[in-house]
Design brief:
Layout: E1 6-14, H1 21-29, E2 36-37, E3 50-51, H2 73-88, E4 101-106, H3 112-125, H4 134-138, H5 142-151, E5 157-160, H6 166-179, E6 185-192, H7 197-205, E7 235-243, H8 244-249, E8 256-265, H9 278-291, E9 300-302, H10 311-323, E10 332-334, H11 337-340, H12 347-361, E11 363-364, E12 387-388, E13 393-400, E14 404-411
Parallel strand pairs: 4-5, 4-6, 9-10, 9-13
Antiparallel strand pairs: 1-7, 1-8, 2-3, 6-7, 8-14, 11-12, 13-14
Helix pairs in contact: 2-5, 6-12, 9-10
Length: about 425
């Protein structure tokens, strides 16, 4: 049997720049920053007091008020974004074999707020003060678990946890299940809600976060010489992947086709890439080989682009190694983390949604706050303003702690 084609038929988001697909995209194209002072707790004693929070999110629009305490924020994000994507794909009236419908989501950390709150209760009052919902609210597989229950998806259901690569790995593995004939539809992407005292404090102690506290909207500045770390974000990006012939038969809207997936490990350091980005080179080359496209057909890369001193030049070097002359002759690269911050395990999910829209709408999103590119960061990063350009094929990169890497490639159908 020949390998089946996989297309994207639905998109859903909860993000720091909008809690639905259309608002998010409008703000991304406009170059609007979602970074501001932390509001979910008092962060005044922390080195970094800023984050890209999801704003105006009402959990009671997702589940009844009496049930809110059963869910951590990352699960609520996942349910909300999944419903939007499912409706967008026109699958809300599906009446076929639900064992052929599944979900794989990337979650890097899971229910950190639930864990922190319950630990405080334990210390203050002993084990009887713990919530009976602690474990099912906290564990990472309850993002796809709750989505599967909500949408009655009886097929594959699990979480991929691979740090900041989780969402991209989830998309790649979902694609492989459909290609191989094991599923017909897989809801995929990533969800994360780790803007908590431990989350902000832990990354702060690593000195990984920007401390541009007096100018939060300009704090995330990938590839800029004045960058000083990433900005932690939260949210969810969901894509509906579907077998092409089925999507065509039912007249589904198609955003793009998933044609390439690559993965690798640096096997080098727990947090830092090699200077030349050899692991990134390997996974980008694998994705290109899987896509069967000449590298010159890749018009746009949504970079990992974290705004950290080490990542940005390493990724730039890797792109130049893989793409050669094309890297400086027609290839556009941007980091949307400049606007939404770093969503950790959800980053690859939201960035894949953005990439699908970039292909569909023929717009390359900008890298905002890029005023003076750092030494070695010498590509076309689409600085400050979005650019209207036909994008036939694009790549999204994600790299995570432990040296884990993944790339996916989409193309216009």
């Amino acid at each position: 049997m020949s390998e089946r084609r996989v297309v994207i038929t639905g998109l859903g988001t909860i993000s720091p720049v909008g809690n639905d697909r259309e608002t998010m995209w409008q703000n991304i194209v406009a170059g609007k920053s979602g970074v501001d002072q932390v509001t979910q707790f008092d962060a005044s004693a922390y080195p970094s007091t800023i984050a890209a929070e999801v704003k105006n999110f009402d959990p009671e629009t997702v589940v009844p008020k009496k049930d809110v305490r059963r869910y951590d924020r990352f699960s609520l994000f996942a349910i909300a974004a999944a419903r939007e994507a499912w409706k967008d794909a026109g699958l809300d009236t599906f009446d076929g074999d639900r064992s052929r419908l599944g979900t794989i989501l990337g979650v890097g950390i899971g229910g950190l707020r639930t864990l922190e709150d319950n630990h405080a209760e334990l210390i203050a009052g002993g084990p009887r003060k713990l919530s009976p919902f602690l474990i099912p609210a906290m564990i990472s597989n309850l993002a796809p678990g709750n989505v599967g229950i909500d949408l009655k998806l009886e097929g594959v259901n699990y979480t991929i946890t691979s740090a900041c690569t989780s969402g991209t790995h989830a998309i790649g593995e979902a694609c492989r299940l459909i290609r191989g004939g094991l599923q017909d539809v897989v809801l995929t992407g990533g969800s994360e809600a780790a803007i908590t005292p431990l989350g902000l404090g832990g990354f702060g102690r690593m000195r990984a976060l920007s401390t541009r506290n007096d100018d939060p909207q300009r704090a995330s500045r990938p590839f800029d010489k004045d960058r000083d770390g990433f900005v932690i974000g939260e949210g969810c990006g969901v894509l509906i992947l579907e077998e092409y012939e089925q999507a065509k038969r039912r007249g589904a809207k198609i955003y793009a086709e998933v044609i390439g997936y690559g993965f690798s490990c640096d096997a080098y350091h727990i947090t830092a890439p090699k200077e030349g980005g050899e692991g990134a080179v390997s996974c980008m080359k694998m994705a290109l080989k899987d896509s069967k496209l000449p590298l010159e057909q890749i018009k746009y890369i949504n970079a990992h682009g974290t705004s950290t001193p080490i990542n940005d030049p390493a990724e730039t070097a890797a792109i130049k190694t893989v793409f050669g002359d094309h890297a400086k002759n027609g290839l556009l690269v941007s980091s949307t983390k400049s606007m939404v911050g770093h969503l950790l395990g959800a980053a690859g999910g939201l960035e894949a949604v953005i990439m699908a829209l970039a292909i569909k709408e023929s717009v390359a999103p900008p890298t905002i706050n890029l005023e003076a590119p750092d030494e070695g960061c010498d590509l076309d990063y689409v600085p400050k303003e979005a650019r209207e350009v036909s994008i036939d094929a694009a790549m999204s990169n994600s790299f995570g702690f432990g040296g884990t890497n993944a790339s996916v490639i989409f193309k216009r159908v």
